[in-house]
Amino acid sequence: MSTNVLNQFARALSSGAIRVVDLSQPLEAGTAVIQLPPEFGKSWPFRLEEISKYDSRGPAWYWNNFSCGEHTGTHFDAPIHWVTGKDYANNATDTISVEKFFAPACVIDVSREVAADPDFLLTPKHIVEWEQKHGRVEAGSWVLMRTDWSKRKDAAAFLNIKEDGAHVPGPHPELVPFLAKERDVIGWGSEGVGTDAGQAFRFEPPFPCHSGMHGSNKFGLASLTNLDQLPPKGAILVTPPLKIVKGSGSPCRVLALIQD
Ligand code: MN
User: 3-class SS at 101?
Assistant: First the structure.
């Protein structure tokens, strides 16, 4: 038996002892995009334009142009995305050190609570209860909030916008400093269109996940799916954004490695 960890890893992948779970949503024209009040700038939806498809425009090749906002579909949020994180060194998609794109994940399952209350907020108390069963959220881990929200396949149900704004679960304002300071996580991930709750514009501070996580040089992952396939602890996430120069984020093919 080889003692080379990478050889062991390759063998475990080919034998199926390590499984790879895709935590990304399909990226297409119908992908839901965050809606902001009309006075703010707009993020483009995903758009695909065919260049050629084995035809007169290119007899042997198929390819497309695409356009979208950086924060479209399953995506990575860099610290530079928020004003609180703008002055950190190496805080953009092209400068974050690549080692940080591999990190363990803690998955907090609150799908039952969210089924009863779409405005459900995760608090430090929930994390402490989870830790009593699964052990501490270790420094450098992702905390992923499993809500099963990604099972809402219809964009209107997924965005869940009412007259008073969006109703989507997320982190409680008190949870963010707890995770950033007391647990020193690498970032926060959720199944909603963004990392904050739908009503977070009313919170103090507003958008506490963006404000507090990026203000602590931490990352975000939004529009995750298949969190129901992850164990509470033990998965490793692979999360490299595109190397957009000074990018604030990027669509991301988020993968989880699991040992069964
Ligand atoms: Mn984002």
Answer: helix
pLDDT tens-digit profile of 103-121? Answer: 999 999 999 999 999 999 9
In the reported structure, the alpha carbon of residue 183 is separated from the centroid of ligand 1 by a whole-number distance in angstroms of 22
Straight-line distance from the first to the last Cα atom of the chain, in angstroms, rounded to the nearest whole number: 20
Q: Assign 89 to helix, strand or coil.
A: coil
CA–CA distance, 145 with 254 (Å, rounded to integer): 15
DSSP 45: P
Prediction pTM value: 0.97
**Exposed, middle or buried: residue 88 (CB in 10 Å: 0-12, 13-18, 19+)?**
middle
Q: Are 20 and 256 in contact (CB under 8 A)?
A: yes
Q: Which residues are catalytic?
A: 81
Condensed to tens digits (0 to 9), the pLDDT of residues 155-182 reads: 999 999 999 999 999 999 999 999 999 9
Q: Measured in angstroms, how far is the CA atom of residue 38 from the centroid of ligand 1? A: 18
Cβ-proximal residues to 53 (8 Å cutoff; 6+ apart), any chain: 62
pLDDT of the residue at 1: 56
For 94, the token pair is 């092209």
CA distance 123 to 173: 8
State the distance from the centre of ligand 1 to the C-alpha of 210, rounded, in angstroms.
8
Q: How far apart are CA 151 and CA 173, in angstroms?
A: 25
**CA 72 to ligand 1 centroid distance, Å:** 8
- CA of 74 relative to ligand 1 center, distance in Å: 9
CB atoms within 10 A of CB 140: 13
